[in-house]
User: Which sequence fits this backbone?
């Protein structure tokens, strides 16, 4: 049986690495209702509710120039070109083709016939064909993380899996943290998963 480290325990540890209190800034009229907080050293945290996550992640992937690293419990596509996971898969492939190193770490477990294994392996094969570096975690330990680090600066951490239900329909909550120092710590954590 795999051991699971709940994400709820990881987020406070990561947030404790941020310097000082972060006051929340309200969105301006006509802008998206994203809530953003910033400290005096330039670290910013944006709350990503439900569908906000997808658009923010796509934007950062499209703008990436240095590196994209993702670690997810589940990345499930459905073959529909306009579905959110298919769009993300295509964006990751485009980033790799324009020369941005893209690495994806996915969950695998030791149960044969697992739908998580099947879905993640299907996506992994498609990502490999697009030039993305793929890793799987150790089969005896569950990686339940949902993390993306872009350009060693932007950290997406929260509850969103890369599935149609999580990205489009579920009540999900994640944060986007703009912090190079935190990004380095999160990248170290991700490297320890495989």
Assistant:
């Amino acid at each position: 049986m795999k051991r699971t480290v709940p994400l709820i325990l990881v987020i406070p540890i990561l947030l404790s690495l941020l310097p000082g209190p972060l006051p929340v800034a309200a969105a301006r009229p006509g802008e998206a209702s994203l809530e953003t907080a910033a400290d005096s050293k330039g670290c910013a945290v944006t709350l990503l509710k439900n569908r906000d996550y997808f658009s923010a992640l796509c934007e950062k992937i499209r703008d990436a120039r240095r590196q994209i690293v993702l670690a997810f419990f589940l990345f499930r596509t459905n073959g529909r070109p306009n579905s959110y996971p298919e769009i993300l898969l295509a964006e990751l492939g485009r980033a790799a083709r324009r020369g941005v190193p893209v690495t994806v770490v996915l969950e695998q477990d030791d149960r044969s016939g697992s739908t998580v294994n099947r879905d993640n392996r299907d996506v992994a094969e498609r990502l490999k064909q697009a030039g993305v570096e793929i890793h799987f975690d150790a089969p005896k330990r569950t990686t339940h993380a949902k993390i993306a680090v872009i350009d060693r600066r932007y950290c997406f951490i929260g509850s969103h899996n890369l599935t149609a239900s999580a990205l489009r329909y579920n009540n999900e909550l994640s944060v986007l943290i703009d912090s190079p120092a935190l990004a380095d710590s999160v990248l170290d954590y991700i490297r320890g998963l495989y």
User: Anything to note?
Assistant: The chain has six helices and eleven strands.
